[in-house]
Amino acid sequence: MNWIYLITAGLFEVVWATTMKLSHGFTKLNYTLMTIVGLAISMGLLALAVKKMPMSLAYPIWTGIGAVGSIIAGVVLFGDKLSPLTWCFVVLLLVSIVGIKFTSGS
User: Membrane-crossing residues (predicted)?
Assistant: First the structure.
């Protein structure tokens, strides 16, 4: 169950980062509220996950899911352009997340 909490928390990190962009500097109330709710859910689920998982495992995976997901959201939803070299680093980030998981012993 901890892994479900952690993965869901990472996905909600993507939600709040995306809605923060859509809030245009917190000037659009609906997206501002979605940002706050998404952030609260993300943090709450992360807090549940770290109750039984090492922080040294949970936190980097949470931030990695958020980072990679936000990159993908930026490309898909906002038309962000990334160079091929940047995509290589995104892949390295994914490899790092998986590596942390498999070498942690958890």
Answer: 33-50, 57-78, 84-103
Q: What is the pLDDT of residue 101?
A: 85
Give the rounded distance of the alpha carbon of 73 from its chain centre: 11
Q: Which amino acid is at 9?
A: A
* Residue 64 tokens, joined: 């990695």
Report the first-to-last Cα separation within the chain, whole angstroms: 13
Asked whether the beta carbons of 24 and 34 are under 8 A apart, the reply is no
What are 7-58's pLDDT values in tens digits? 999 999 999 999 999 999 999 999 999 999 999 999 999 999 999 999 999 9
Q: How many CA atoms lie within 13 A of 14 on its CB side?
A: 20
